[in-house]
Prior knowledge:
Elements: E1 11-15, H1 20-31, E2 35-40, H2 43-53, E3 60-64, H3 70-84, E4 89-92, H4 108-136, E5 139-144, H5 157-177, E6 182-189, H6 198-201, H7 204-213, H8 223-233, E7 244-247
Parallel strand pairs: 1-2, 1-4, 2-3, 4-5, 5-6, 6-7
Helix pairs in contact: 1-8, 3-4, 4-5
Amino acid sequence: MTTSISLVGKTALVTGGGRGIGKAIAKRLAEAGANVVIASRKLENLEATATELAGLPGKVLPIACHVGRLEEIENLVRETESHFGPVDILVNNSATNLGQGPSLAVTDEMLDKIVEINIKAAIRLVRLTVPKMIERGKGSIINISSVAGIEPQPQGLLYSFTKAGLIMMTRGWAREFSPHGVRCNTIAPGLIQTDFSAHFWKNEQYRSELETNQPIPRIGQPDEISFAALYLASDESSYVTGQVLVIDGGMTA
Ligand SMILES: NC(=O)c1ccc[n+]([C@@H]2O[C@H](COP(=O)([O-])OP(=O)(O)OC[C@H]3O[C@@H](n4cnc5c(N)ncnc54)[C@H](OP(=O)(O)O)[C@@H]3O)[C@@H](O)[C@H]2O)c1
């Protein structure tokens, strides 16, 4: 084994790969030589990212997909396979954080929507990609959870429960699939500076408390998540499965 990670010949699928953490992960995987499909709702944004990442050793292909819609997910996997072959690395990264507010204000519509995007999409993508990983005896699934899946997020219990669900699915899938060569792990970021978390990092009081109390007293950057994904995607993590890698500047220490 060498010290530089190579993913040459691998196919990766990163949902929400057009911006934020997903984009940083897509870039890192393509740098290591994987061919990467980036998928989300806004094709324009995905295309801009693909253009930005063109020229890396691996190709980056944008495919529009609303991960809450089964037919679009089926199309995403079909298109990925037809361009690059079966998926070796699945990164379940797309998410929504709707439903911020008190638990008693959660409606059925909010509940259905968040489960559809944050949980059901991952289950469907696993169902569509893992059989071929098992056939080939190898694969890596990386679920992007959150520290909110470990500690209940104030005013964000709905989001927290979906992120906790991803952690439990990770552990269950690891037990079920790892004997067949398919590993499954979770990354749980703390506060990372993206559009998604602007509500927190633009709040001066929240930010100043974090910058005072957190052991690493600053907000994280998407790139600081991407190296963990690269490791978990690669054979260098061949003995790691069913784990939650918390990357949070010590927030939960
Ligand atoms: N930022 C943080 O502080 C933080 C902390 C912990 C965990 N996380 C997790 O990290 C992951 C990435 O978040 P981020 O911070 O990078 O946020 P972001 O920059 O807002 O990215 C979210 C991505 O999800 C996609 N997406 C949203 N709804 C979708 C849908 N219905 N179908 C397909 N794609 C959809 C978005 O693309 P479109 O709009 O084009 O669909 C976007 O690419 C999420 O799972 C989030 O829960 C983030």
